[in-house]
Design brief:
The protein has about 375 residues and is mainly alpha-helical. It contains 15 helices and two strands. The protein has helices at about 30-40, 45-55, 55-80, 115-130, 135-145, 160-170, 180-195, 200-215, 220-235, 240-260, 265-275, 280-300, 305-320, 325-345, 350-370; strands at about 20, 25-30. Strands 1-2 form a two-stranded antiparallel sheet. Strand 1 (about 20) and strand 2 (about 25-30) form a beta hairpin. The structure holds zinc ion (4 copies). One zinc ion binds near residues 104, 105, 106, 151 and 154.
Length: about 375
């Protein structure tokens, strides 16, 4: 992760608080931790080395990058056996001696490369765009080489995505906070950490990025995207209440920025889903009663998001302990209807259709129990 904590006691410092080592910029919560780090933490020996590397953040990123490359090459060793790099044409990298990786959608003998060669390629392309003032469009087209393979044009995943995330952050972290490359590098690092299921560190990066954007007065749309990433990371960490809080803020932020349609419909969908999964069914239904008519007009009856909104409403109904017989009948009817539309629009094997059919099964169970005067309680993992 990036360095947002005291190097000794791990107190949260964000991106700017705390006391810095005058030489190498390692940060501490205060003089006590700094003194202790020098005397007992080995900082007396490392300080010069860190300064030489370009400061604490750079030193950390360099080390993390080297680790991530080693992990990636190791994980890809079986797949890349006997192959050569499509960029430098060698099996072993001439300078770093690192092994090959492949983490995109290339098949057969295509797409094997050294992380270092991928990094060099992206770095040079972006530098050319900047040095020759090629403009934002060219810059964006070249920038994607940090996250997409130049052969198959698909995103890197897993360990390769993580190594490139560290590479990108290591490359641009020294730039001013307002620099686009630095901001995007932070995003890619967060994505890379999430790609190897390191959600704890992805969260640290995401929170730091959001705090930075808010501090710099970034456009609201960009802040909402950052919040969306965080909400997802909270979810992956099982922090459902935090995720819900974020989803709510995104919904109201979108409402203010875009009005009732556009991205607000998706934000409402996500917020309603979070409410339902925490069994706050009445709030979810109230929200959906507002959003669904707008979605019906803007998106139409056959749109997947529209179907999804209706499905959540039906789900919130059968999870609601106070649902009436009428509510439950409506829930079953809605799910029968959305299943029928989904089958027609998306085909019979679509995972979305499967999930609607699971919901339909559950809503029928609840309805017949209710008709027999019994109640059904679903375990959380069944939801
Ligand atoms: Zn401390
Ligand atoms: Zn130092
Ligand atoms: Zn190579
Ligand atoms: Zn590829």
């Amino acid at each position: 992760m990036i360095l947002t904590q005291c190097a000794v006691c791990a107190t949260e410092l964000g991106l700017s608080l705390g006391k810095k080592c005058g030489r190498c910029s390692t940060r501490y919560c205060g003089p006590e931790c700094q003194v202790q780090h020098w005397k007992e933490g080995g900082h007396d020996k490392l300080c010069k080395k860190i300064k030489k590397a370009g400061g604490a953040e750079q030193y950390n990123a360099n080390n993390k990058y080297a680790e991530a490359v080693a992990v990636a090459a190791e994980a890809c060793a079986e797949d890349t056996k006997g192959q050569t790099c499509f960029i430098c044409t060698q099996a072993l990298h001439w300078k770093t001696k690192e092994g090959l990786v492949r983490g995109c959608s290339c098949r057969g003998t295509a797409g094997f490369a050294h992380v270092s060669c991928l990094v060099e390629q992206a770095k040079i392309l972006v530098a050319e765009a900047e040095e020759n003032n090629l403009g934002p469009k060219a810059w964006n087209e070249r920038w994607v080489r940090w996250e997409k393979c130049s052969l198959c044009e698909q995103k890197y995943h897993g360990v390769v995505c993580c190594a490139l995330g560290w590479a990108c952050w290591k490359m641009y972290l020294g730039r001013p906070e307002t620099d686009f490359a630095r901001k995007f590098a932070m995003t890619y690092l967060g994505n890379g950490l999430a790609a190897v299921n390191n959600y704890e560190d992805a969260l640290t990066v995401g929170e730091a990025e959001l705090a930075m954007e808010q501090r710099l007065g970034a456009p609201e749309a960009s802040i909402l995207i950052g919040m969306g990433n965080l909400a997802q990371t909270y979810n992956m960490l099982g922090r459902e209440e935090d995720s819900l809080r974020m989803m709510r803020d995104i919904y109201f932020g979108s409402l203010k920025l875009y009005g009732e349609d556009g991205d607000t419909i998706l934000a409402a969908n996500n917020y309603a889903m979070a409410l339902t999964s925490l069994r706050r069914c009445k709030e979810a239904k109230e929200l959906l009663r507002k959003t669904t008519p707008v979605a019906r007009q803007v998106l139409g009856e056959n749109d997947q998001l529209m179907l999804h909104l209706r499905t959540i409403y039906a789900t919130a109904s059968y999870y609601d302990p106070d649902a009436t017989l009428g509510d439950l009948r409506e829930s079953v009817k809605t799910l029968e209807d959305t299943a029928r539309i989904a089958r027609r629009v998306m085909g019979g094997a679509h995972p979305f259709l499967e999930s609607i059919e699971r919901d339909l099964g559950k809503s029928r169970t609840v309805l017949s129990a209710h008709e027999a005067g019994k109640s059904v309680v679903f375990e959380p993992e069944e939801s």
